C-alpha cells in the first residue's frame, strides 16, 4: 500500500489549474495544506468562476484563457469536463513551458490520450491522471482539502514517458493524500466503466424512470425514498456535463459492462418471475462480501447508513419545535 | 405534515415483538424512549437472538415460540421476514387476546394481507404496516431509538377496520418518531417497488456483475469503488432472507417497474452508442430536481457524500501513523 506522505517542500513553483470546479478547487486546498505549491494560478471558461476562485484564494491569479494561465507553469492540470481537454490542449500547446508536466483529472483515459497527446509539444511531459474521488457537488465552492485522502489516483503514462516524471507526479498526488496506481488507459477505462460509469448511468436511469411513472406520483417517490431510492439520487445529482462527456468518451467499455449488467439483471428478473428463491438468496448473500472488502480497504465508512445523521434532521427538528 | 408527538403515557400495557432484528430492536428502543410501552416481550426463531434481546433489555421476557409471546399482549408486531408472517399468524391465531391489535413491518403489503388476514380471529384488529426506515445492518444489536425519526410509516388498513384502531396505531408510530400515511396494500406495493425494491435489486445486481468479471479483478473493484460503486454496495449488504421474501411476494409490481427501468436504460444505452450527447445531458440534468426534493422533504442529508467522514478514515489513519 502506498504511504501518504506529508511534506512542506515546494514541489512545483507554479501550478496552473485549467478549470476550477470541485476537483480543481480541492487540488488547490490540498496543495495549500501540504505546502507543495509555490504559486497556484488558473483559468475557467466562465468569468464568474475565475472571480470566485480568486476571492476564495484558490488561485492567486485568474485568467480568462487557458493559454495565458499555463505560461511559465511547471505543472498544468486540466480539470475540465473530458470533452474540453482536446480543444484546450490545442489552445495551450504553444504556451506550455519546456520541461513542464501536463496532466488531467478526467474520468476516462484512452480518449484523453487520443485528444490531448497530439497537441503536446516536444519537451513537455504528458501524464494522464484520474483521482477516484468526488462528491455530488460542483463548482469552486464545493472543494475541500480532504477530498483525496485515502482515495486512489490512477496515472496512465505512455511507455516512453520519463520514469522520473511519473515519480514526481506520484509524489504530488501522495502529498495531496492519495494513493497512486499505474495502469494502461484501456484498463483504466474498463475498471472505471464498472466501478463508476455504469453505476452513475443506472442511478441516473432509475431516477428518470421514477420521475416518469403514471401510477406513482413524484411526491410519493420523494416521501418514501428512504427505502433505498435516495442512495441512488446522490450520484445522480452529479454534474450533467461531466457525465455526458464520460459516456461519449468511454462508449465501448460502458456498453460492454452494461451488456453484462443487463444480462445478469434479466437472470434475476427471471428468478423473480418463476419464484426461484434459492437463486435470489444466493445472489444477495454474495454481495455482502464485496461490501466488507470495501470497508476493510478503507474505501467506505463502516457506519450504518453511510453515517447519515439519525437525529436532528431538518424536517423532524422543525416538527419538534411546533409540537 | 404529521407532527411528531412525544408522550410518556403508556399506550399499550404489553407489546409483543415477533422477531427481534434491526426493526424489532429499534421499535423496542423507540418505545422506551417515548415511554409508551408497559412491558415489551418477544420471541425469535433463533434461541441466541432471544437471549441477546433479553441481555440487551430489548424485551423483559423472551419466548421460543410466537404463540407464547403474544399471550395477553395488547399490541403484536410481526417483525420477521415477509415469508414467515403467514405461518406465524396461523401459529398465534388461538393465542391472540380479544381486542388486541396485530400489525407487521413487512416491506410488501398485499401478500401480507393474503397470508395473514385469514388467520386473524374475530375481535382482533389487523392493520398491516410498513415503516420506511432501515440500515444495511441486521440483528438485535443493530437497532437504535432514532431509526424512525422523520421517516414515513405506511399503514394499509382494510375498509372495514375500526377507525379508532387505525388512529391508535398511527399515534403509536408517531410516538416512535414517524410520520404516518394511509394507502391501499396494492398502491403501497407499487410505490415501494420503485422506491425500494427495484433499487435493491439493481444494487444487488451490479455488485454481482462486478464480482464476476474476467477482465477486472475483485480487488480492483474494491480499490476503486469510491467512483460511485460503493454507494450501491450499502443496500446490497442488506439481509438476504428479507429481500428474497420481498421479491417473491411483490412479483407483479417489481416486474412492472423493472420493465420500465430496462426500457429507459435501453434508451440511454442507445444514446451512448449513437453519441446522442443532448439526450444524455437532458436526462442527467433532470435527476438533480428529484434529489433536491428529497433533501427538502427531510428524507436525506444535504451534506455532500451523505456526510461520509473525509478525514481520519481507517485506511489513511493507519498510513499516517506509519509515515
Features:
6-phosphogluconate dehydrogenase C-terminal fold; 3-stranded mixed sheet; Rossmann fold; homodimer; 6-stranded parallel sheet; 323 residues; alpha/beta
Total discrete domains of chain A: 2
How many β-strand stretches of chain A? Answer: 9
Biggest interface found? A-B, 130 and 130 residues
How many helices of chain A does DSSP assign?
A: 13
Proportion of β residues of chain A? Answer: 5-15%
| Model regions low in confidence, pLDDT < 50 over at least 5 residues of chain A | 312-323
CATH C-level class of the largest domain in chain A is Alpha Beta
Give a brief description:
Chain A is an alpha/beta fold.
Structural description of this entry:
The structure is a homodimer of 323-residue chains. Chain A is α/β, with parallel strands linked by helices and 323 residues long. Chain A folds into two domains: 12-183, 3-Layer(aba) Sandwich (Rossmann fold), CATH 3.40.50.720; 188-275, 6-phosphogluconate dehydrogenase C-terminal like domain (6-phosphogluconate dehydrogenase C-terminal fold). Helix content of chain A is 49%, strand content 12%. Chain A is built from 13 helices and nine strands. In chain A, the strands form two sheets. In chain A, strands 3-2-1-4-5-6 form a six-stranded parallel β-sheet. In chain A, strand 1 (12-18), helix 1 and strand 2 (37-43) form a beta-alpha-beta unit. In chain A, helix 7 (185-211) packs across helix 11. Residues 312-323 of chain A have low confidence and may be disordered. The interface between A and B is large, with 130 and 130 residues.
